[in-house]
Amino acid sequence: xxxxxxxxxxxxxxxxxxxxxxxxxxxxxxxxxxxxxxxxxxxxxxxxxxxxxxxxxxxxxxxxxxxxxxxxxxxxxxxxxxxxxxxxxxxxxxxxxxxxxxxxxxxxxxxxxxxxxxxxxxxxxxxxxxxxxxxxxxxxxxxxxxxxxxxxxxxxxxxxxxxxxxxxxxxxxxxxxxxxxxxxxxxxxxxxxxxxxxxxxxxxxxxxxxxxxx
Length: 214
Hints:
The chain is mainly α. The chain contains 9 helices and 3 strands, in the order αααααααββαβα.
């Protein structure tokens, strides 16, 4: 039987909300739950609490704003989405079910996750990550992508690029994961392998910045 052909219960919505939360926790580390993912995660946790405490999805509430999260994720999240397919399926199922539930109760969907909220969340996490990375976005990521001793001896290396304007770093692996929508002014810092480390990258950045000042 089509589950949408019978009247939807709040318990069914809660079940799907739990599946989204579970998929996020399974697919992302605590440090990766940031930006749009962090916004979605927090909204779903609040929605779960709202329902468990007897809240009604029909009534407008700042604690129950998850409609539009799936579309927002696809439109604005630039990381690899392949590991998120199951999560997205559950998100769209949840949003569809909530939409139907509200229409069954003769109301329209009141609030959606907005682009402004997404950008504010991303700015907050960018500030945090820059602080943790000596002011350079992506430093920890490119350092972790440098091949270890065994791979380096086998001939592998990681070319690392530096975006001069945004002070961002990304490697070849990152370029394959990231969907860059604008052409960034960038320079190649070089090719790194074991025993290269964070200090080597920071020294090379300083050399580039000193050349730019001249």
